[in-house]
Amino acid sequence: MSGARTAPDAETAGRMVEGVLDRLASSGDRAACEAAEELVRVLMEFYGGGFARVMDLLGRRPDRPAREAVEALLRDELVAGLLVLHGLHPEDTPARIARALDALPQDVESTGFDPATGELRLRLIGSGGCGCGGSPDAVEQAARDTLACFAPEVTAVTWEADTASGPVLLQIGAGPPGASVSGPNGRPPATATP
Fold this sequence. Notes:
- The protein is mainly alpha-helical.
- Helices cover 47% and strands 9% of the residues.
- Strand 2, helix 6 and strand 3 (156-160) form a beta-alpha-beta unit.
- Helix 5 (93-102) packs across helix 6.
- The longest helix has 31 residues, at 30-60.
C-alpha cells in the first residue's frame, strides 16, 4: 500500500462528519459542539460557494475551449484559493503572485519574493494621475487580501518607495499664449521651473 489517502465519497464523508459531531455532543461540552457545528456550516458554505462559482464560470460560455475555461477558473479568487488550499493549483508561486497583482485596481509590481521567509517586496507604480487611486492603506489591504487567495505562501509584505516616478509639476497658465499677464504691482508674476 502506498499510504496515499483516497477521498471518501459524499455519503461516507457525511457519516464521518456526523460521527465527529455526535462524539462532541456526547462529551457534554455544549460550547464545543456548537462551535464544531458552526465550523461545518462555514466550511460547507465556503466549498458550496466555490463549486457554484466553478459552475457559473464554466456555464457562461459552455462552448469555450478548455484552456479558456481553466484560465477563467484560475483568475477567480475563490476558486484559486480552493485549488491552492488543496495543492491543485497548476501554477507556481511566482505566477500566482503575478496573477494576484494583476487583479489589483492599482498598478503594483513585485521587486522580489523570498520563499524561505515568505516576504514579498512590492512597489506601487504610478498614481493614476489624479491622486484618486485610493489610500495607501486601502491598496495595501487589497494586496494582502488578494495574495491570501492566490499565494498564501506570502506571509509578509514590505512596501518599497517608487523611486522612478517623482511628483509631477503641473503648471497652469493665466491666459492664452502671447497674452500679457501682470502681477499685483504691474510686474510679471513669479514662475516656478521644473
